[in-house]
């Protein structure tokens, strides 16, 4: 049932009390300051293009809203295959698995159930946009083993990068020759489902030049039938410092990511036989011993898969001037996609070329005795996509059934000023302007279409430094998110369908800090959303195709809580040991504020119903013991009740509890053995759903089982 404002206020009061009690993650809010092993080289000036995690934390602590910082050492203990695996312990972020190497990431309800091409979050690498100009993100492009740390900006808290969507921004920071302390690293892993992964990197820094390069190879048969993955991922960067203080860095990414798709199942099938691939779709017999008609042979017979090759080159240059800092950059990306799915959708083949560039100016000034720290920026991105669709003839390309030339363009201008009202109180005002165009031209049997959207989005916030160890913050902002090409064309499967841009006003308040043996990060927010993008799995000739529509008015509100507790007893502390309990709790209250009008050419009575696709509550917890040469931890993820699969709220996914352990031992100063066990109780659960209008009427096969018990182990060497 939908939680009304009075009930939400009661839950908020409970959440505020929980801040001071043992909660429930491996939480990574920026207020939770676990020890940072910051290393400073005497005489070395800080890198302008590659700040270390401690410097990034200092910047994030000046953001008056929900933000997070996740260092690589947090997730490298586990077998993290995708960027979603690195973020599941961040308050306010929900990540689940829809296929090998493919994760759906939702921040504050963004992209509630978008398809493989995810919407609602602006993803950047070292400050340079990697989300597509067409409006979606391929999370396959990111290899967790080539990450130094991740910055998470929820909602308009990412305005420093120009982000103002409901989900905000994620910035992935790469190791460089100046931040990677080891010259060489090697990592080899293996485990359940015939999984093997190897990764190596090299780093070097001289007086002027530095270099980092990393490559990873992954293969696995997967937990489910027809779910194997084969991939190679490479990332490198080359930096140069100049005598005038300027610094430039060139980034190169190349990858080939290929995985089979097991497809989704009916709920009973998914729970009874979670390792099975989706069944063929049949009808009949029409009379005793009559014929059976096969509408879709299913994922194994038609070899459903998703194969993505990416080549990307980017540059970022930072020039310090007398009173300000200039930052500029550009990028080019080539993406080749071969994606075989249902008989109706066919085999989607795309070749996309994208270019973009940005300019940022940052500085500080004294205006009439008031200190002002400011940033202004502009960014443009454009792409051209040759989108083709072939019939799926038992996994082979059949007749070309559609072809379109899809163009996208974004022009972004933004500015933000931090004004010191008093020694302890800072006001932040900001403004964003976004202009977008999405265009699809008919080449063969496709419907032409074009959508142009623009909007100015303001932001106002206050940050109060209560003392050296605690902050309070408040902000109000307007969000704006135009539809992507994937939404307008159902990933290239359906004709062009114009959609309105999603808009939202959000109010947020919270606190973060440390006091004695407790550190916390707490936010509460409410967003009034118009024209929210709603995904409905549509029945088409026995198959289901996810199509996107605009709802009318919805509300997203919730609580994001992270708590770290240091439980180290005196005797353990004296021997250099440490015992830490890290926790998160996320409460998602998302519901229709009015009935969506003419949704999918129908009128549904959804007023007051919960939005489908994301669970209401998420608890994650980890208890970790560290000694001089070893560590051991137990983690727990609890979803009390799963999400509704339909917007009519007739079918709710069962909740689940997952228990895992990790451990490691330093056999030398340069080598570590590690092991992780996931889902120790072999819990059968649903990790992902495709949302529908009314499951009680449609009985759709839209449930993806989660991974069962698995054990992975490996060796890492660094010197």
Would you give an account of this structure?
The protein is mainly beta and 719 residues long. It has a single domain, classed as Maltoporin, Chain A. The chain is 7% helix and 53% strand. It has 8 helices and 35 strands. The strands form 6 sheets. It has a 22-stranded antiparallel β-barrel. It has a 5-stranded mixed beta sheet with strand order 1-6-7-4-5. The longest helix is centred in the first third of the chain and has 14 residues, at 5-18.
Q: What general outline do the C-alpha atoms trace? A: globular
Query: How would a crystallographer describe the biggest sheet?
Result: 22 strands, antiparallel, barrel
Give the amount of beta strand, in percent.
over 45%
The radius of gyration over CA amounts to 25 Å
The parts where pLDDT drops under 50 for at least 5 residues are 1-27, 34-43
Structural class: mainly beta
Helical amount among residues, as a percent range? under 10%
| Integer tally of domains | 1
- Using the coordinates shown, work out and report the CATH topology: Maltoporin, Chain A
Number of helices: 8
| Extended strand count | 35
CATH architectural grouping: Beta Barrel
Which CATH class?
Mainly Beta
CATH homology group: TonB-dependent receptor, beta-barrel domain
Terminal-residue CA separation: 55 Å
Descriptive tags:
719 residues, mainly beta, Maltoporin, Chain A, five-stranded mixed beta sheet, 8 helices, 35 strands, 53% strand, disordered N terminus
């Amino acid at each position: 049932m939908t939680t009304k404002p009075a009930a939400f206020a009661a839950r908020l009061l409970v959440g505020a009390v929980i801040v001071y009690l043992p909660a429930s993650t491996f939480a990574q809010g920026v207020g939770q300051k676990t020890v940072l092993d910051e290393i400073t080289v005497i005489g070395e000036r800080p890198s302008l293009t590659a700040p270390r995690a401690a410097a990034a934390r200092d910047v994030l602590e000046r953001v008056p809203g929900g933000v997070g910082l996740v260092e690589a050492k947090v997730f490298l203990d586990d077998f993290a295959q995708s960027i979603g695996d690195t973020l599941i312990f961040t308050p306010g972020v929900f990540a689940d698995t829809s296929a090998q190497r493919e994760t759906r990431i939702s921040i504050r309800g963004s992209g509630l159930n978008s398809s493989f091409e995810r919407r609602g979050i602006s993803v950047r690498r070292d400050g340079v946009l990697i989300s597509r100009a067409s409006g979606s993100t391929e999370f396959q492009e990111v290899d967790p083993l080539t990450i130094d740390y991740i910055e998470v900006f929820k909602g308009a808290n990412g305005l420093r990068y120009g982000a103002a969507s409901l989900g905000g921004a994620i910035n992935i920071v790469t190791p460089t020759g100046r931040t990677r302390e080891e010259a060489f690293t090697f990592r080899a892993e293996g485990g359940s489902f015939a999984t093997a992964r190897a990764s190596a990197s090299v780093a070097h820094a001289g007086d002027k030049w530095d270099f980092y390069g990393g490559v990873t190879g992954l293969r696995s048969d997967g937990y489910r039938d027809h779910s194997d993955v084969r991939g190679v991922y490479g990332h490198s960067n080359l930096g140069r410092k100049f005598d005038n203080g300027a610094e430039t860095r060139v980034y190169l990414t190349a990858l080939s990511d290929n995985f089979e798709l097991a497809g989704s199942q009916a709920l009973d099938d998914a729970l009874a036989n979670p390792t099975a691939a989706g069944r063929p779709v049949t009808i009949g017999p029409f009379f005793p011993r009559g014929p059976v008609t096969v509408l879709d042979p299913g994922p194994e017979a038609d070899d459903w898969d998703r194969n993505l090759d990416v080549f990307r080159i980017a540059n970022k240059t930072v020039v310090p001037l007398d009173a300000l800092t200039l930052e500029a950059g550009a990028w080019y990306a080539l993406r080749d996609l071969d994606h075989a799915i249902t008989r109706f959708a066919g085999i989607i083949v795309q070749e996309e070329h994208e270019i973009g560039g940005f300019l940022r100016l940052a500085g500080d000034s004294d205006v009439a005795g008031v200190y002002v720290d400011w940033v202004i920026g502009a960014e443009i991105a454009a792409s051209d996509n040759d989108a083709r669709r072939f019939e799926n003839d038992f996994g082979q390309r059949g007749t070309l059934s559609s072809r379109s030339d899809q163009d996208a363009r974004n022009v972004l201008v933004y500015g933000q000023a931090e004004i010191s009202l008093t020694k302890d109180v800072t006001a932040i005002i900001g403004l964003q302007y976004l202009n977008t165009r999405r265009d699809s031209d008919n080449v063969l049997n496709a419907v032409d279409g074009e959508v142009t959207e623009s909007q100015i989005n303001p932001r106002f916030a206050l940050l109060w430094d209560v003392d050296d160890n605690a902050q309070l913050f408040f902000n109000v902002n307007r969000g704006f998110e135009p539809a992507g090409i994937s939404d307008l064309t159902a990933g290239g499967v359906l004709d062009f369908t114009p959609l309105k841009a999603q808009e939202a006003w959000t109010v947020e308040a919270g606190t973060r800090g440390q006091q004695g043996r407790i550190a916390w990060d707490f936010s509460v927010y409410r967003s009034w959303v118009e024209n929210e993008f709603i995904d409905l799995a549509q029945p088409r000739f026995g198959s289901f195709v996810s199509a996107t529509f605009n709802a009318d008015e919805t509300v997203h509100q919730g609580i994001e809580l992270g708590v770290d507790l240091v439980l180290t007893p005196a005797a353990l502390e004296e021997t250099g040991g440490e015992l830490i309990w890290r926790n998160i709790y996320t409460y998602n209250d998302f519901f229709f504020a009015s009935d969506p009008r003419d949704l999918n050419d129908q009128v549904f009575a959804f007023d007051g119903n919960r939005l489908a696709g994301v669970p209401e509550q998420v608890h994650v917890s980890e208890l970790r013991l560290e000694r001089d040469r070893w560590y051991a931890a137990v983690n727990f993820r609890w979803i009390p009740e799963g999400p509704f699969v339909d917007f009519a709220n007739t079918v709710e996914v069962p909740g689940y509890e997952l228990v895992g352990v990790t451990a490691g031992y330093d056999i030398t100063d340069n080598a570590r053995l590690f092991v992780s066990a996931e889902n120790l109780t072999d819990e059968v659960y649903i990790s992902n759903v495709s949302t529908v209008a009314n499951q009680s009427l449609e009985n759709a096969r839209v449930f993806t089982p989660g991974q069962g018990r698995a054990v992975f182990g490996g060796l890492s060497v660094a010197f």
